[in-house]
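[Q] Does anyone have a clean structure-token version of this?
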Amino acid sequence: MIRGYRTHTLWVAFLLHRISGVALALFLPLHFWVLSYALTAPETLDGLLRWTDLGIVKFAEFGLVFLLSVHMFGGLRLMALEWLPWTSGQKTAAASAVAASTLVAGVFFLRAI
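[A] Here you go.
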């Protein structure tokens, strides 16, 4: 049984914001660890950079950038909803506009690949 609040459109925005935040929190330590090889073991870093030429890694990088943008816009949405005196309909329209623009940007990005 689905609870009433989970049927609201903004529940998806909340869920995406949480999931993207957790994914980024898991990625950042790995990212900094790999970057540390630039100072400690440049040859190992070169090997890892060659590995990033694989198609699956490029797709994962797209996913990472997508999650970063979702998390950033989700945070901006939350700040705008809490700090600006909007009506409920205006909040939904603003969230829908951000979602649509993110979708359009993603389509353009995929066409560029």
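[Q] Thanks! Anything notable?
[A] The mean pLDDT is 83.
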